[in-house]
Specification:
two-stranded antiparallel ribbon, 12 strands, alpha/beta, eight-stranded parallel β-barrel
Length: about 325
């Protein structure tokens, strides 16, 4: 089932469901850790599970002459494969992420063909992050610079248009496309209005729904939804929630994800004696956010778990 159908069905039933994301295993690992993270949450009937996509990374290796040699490595391949494995094992819908970073249009087309063969009908289209150590996004020579172009390629394939041209009487994929939205604007956007214009471009290109970057302040989420509607962006918006888990995230989350943390949350975390207490604060804050969003009638809530779901279990038990 397509994500947009699940969203519309939940809305029609007056029900709020949840989704969460997991990471592909590190290279050399098996599926066990992923399955162990997924299984406890199945009793709460997640609408679907997102699987992240990780671009190439940089590794420095010391040479015999003492100099460092830069090597490109892939630490977490297998997004499509683990997506299919989850879907086959548990019968739950999956949403693999697909990014522009590090991929050619042919790489993207091949990944989409594999997804289609495996019966995966949903994809989250993202530009992706800069490579580690680079201050600007570097486009693959044969790839896309922006997520809207990736959306257009997926829509084209749905319509039977491939990189080498249109294929007559071909099988048509039916991908439902999600894209990212930023309640506090994307770090590279000069202002919120410009950021909304870029978001609308992705929706106009063919995206069916938006999932937001993690946000710890529901007022900003509600304001973002209102601003989207005023800008003519009418597709469903899925709020993103991140359960806080360590004191280090006080600096890491704003630095990496360019989000603000409410002072009330910061003060509660700072009072914690250890990360066990921090995780409990994070659970309680996420429950508070989820209850308010559920009361407002949001049909789907998305949780950023970073592959660890023990705190998500506590949240789901309270809310879903």
């Amino acid at each position: 089932m397509q994500v947009i159908e699940m969203i519309n069905k939940a809305a029609a039933e007056g029900r709020t469901r949840f989704t969460f994301e997991t990471l592909p295993p590190l290279k050399g690992d098996g599926t066990a850790t992923v399955f162990e993270a997924v299984e406890p949450l199945l009793e709460f009937d997640p609408a679907y599970i997102n699987i992240t996509y990780h671009r190439e990374d940089v590794k420095y290796v010391e040479r015999p002459d003492g100099l460092l040699e830069k090597r490109i490595v892939r630490r977490r391949p297998g997004t499509v494969g683990i997506s299919a494995a989850i879907m086959k094992r548990y019968g739950v819908e999956v949403v693999p992420h697909l990014i522009c970073g590090g991929l050619s249009r042919y790489d993207i087309e091949d990944a989409l063909i594999d997804m289609d063969f495996l019966g995966i009908d949903n994809v989250l289209a993202l530009r992706g992050d800069n490579m580690r150590g680079e201050h600007a996004f570097r486009t693959h020579p044969e790839g896309h610079a922006h997520a809207c172009d990736l959306v257009r390629q997926i829509v084209g394939m749905n319509n039977g248009v491939f990189i080498d041209g249109e294929v007559e009487e071909c099988h048509h994929s039916q991908f439902c496309i999600g894209v990212a939205g930023y309640p506090e604007k994307h770090a590279e956007s000069p202002n919120g209005d410009t950021d909304l214009r870029f978001l609308k471009e992705k929706v106009d290109a063919g995206a069916s729904y938006i999932v937001t970057q993690m946000c710890f302040d529901n007022r900003k989420l509600f304001d973002f939804i209102n601003r989207c509607r005023a800008a003519g962006i009418m597709v469903p918006i899925v709020p993103g929630i991140k359960p806080f888990s360590t004191k280090a995230q006080l600096s890491l989350l704003p630095q990496i994800f360019h989000v603000d943390l409410p002072q009330e949350l910061v003060s509660e975390v700072e009072r914690c004696a250890d990360n066990k207490q921090v995780r409990q604060v994070g659970v309680e804050w996420a429950i508070m956010q989820a209850r308010e969003l559920k009361k407002a009638g949001l049909p789907i809530l998305h949780f950023y778990t970073m592959g660890r779901t023990d705190n998500m279990y506590k949240i789901a038990k309270e809310i879903f």
